[in-house]
Fold this sequence. Notes:
Elements: E1 7-12, H1 18-28, E2 32-34, E3 37-39, E4 53-55, H2 58-66, E5 70-76, E6 79-84, H3 85-93, E7 97-101, H4 104-113, E8 118-123, H5 127-137, H6 142-156, E9 164-167, H7 171-186, H8 193-209
Parallel strand pairs: 1-7, 1-8, 2-7, 3-4, 8-9
Antiparallel strand pairs: 3-6, 5-6
Helix pairs in contact: 1-7
Amino acid sequence: MNKKGLVLVISGFSGVGKGTVVRRLMEKYKNYALSVSVTTRAPREGEVHGREYFFISEEEFSAMETEGRLMEWAGYVGHHYGTPRDYVVGRLEEGKDMILEIEVQGALQIKKKYPDAVLVFMAPPSIEALQERLKGRGTEDEKEVEKRLRRAVEEAEDMESYDYLLINEDLETCVEELHQIVRCEHQRTGVNLEMMSRIKNDLKRFVEGE
Ligand code: 5GP
């Protein structure tokens, strides 16, 4: 039976280590695929078009939006980000668990449209750790770090809308916890209707056939 994949949304403050956790998760387990977003922000050093993001212009972004080619989109510290629909839908049909690493406004849009989506919010063990990581990353200047920390204050307000809170203290532990969440979500009765009806029918046939 080809089971449809889950939509796994991962959000968390800038610098919390979402990217590292997702990379490790995909290295260890083969049931995942990562959605590559479109963005109007400029590439950081080392980022590759089509790998981290599709880097597009504001005009291209608004064309995608009006043509309904985005599953969700949001503005984030002066730029636009969105999830291309076709790729995600295709991989879900193939049975892949699709990871969307997106911020909170987009996550809430996804939950509304796809109530079965699983929303995970990743937080640091302490805010000092987050500040250190953001500065240490060295990819944003001080102003940008400040903007991102301010945005984190707003994002924290929406943590309660998520299904799970995951603390990223130790990489391997965090990856395992995330994978267990997905495994458990696959066992939910609500997403296993087909299996349940097969069990009931087989049971009936067995009893009646006696
Ligand atoms: P960054 O500029 O650090 O790569 O990303 C900034 C924020 O935008 C992060 O919180 C990231 O998760 C979020 N983001 C990346 N892609 C998307 C997307 O397609 N949609 C939404 N809503 N947020 C995104």
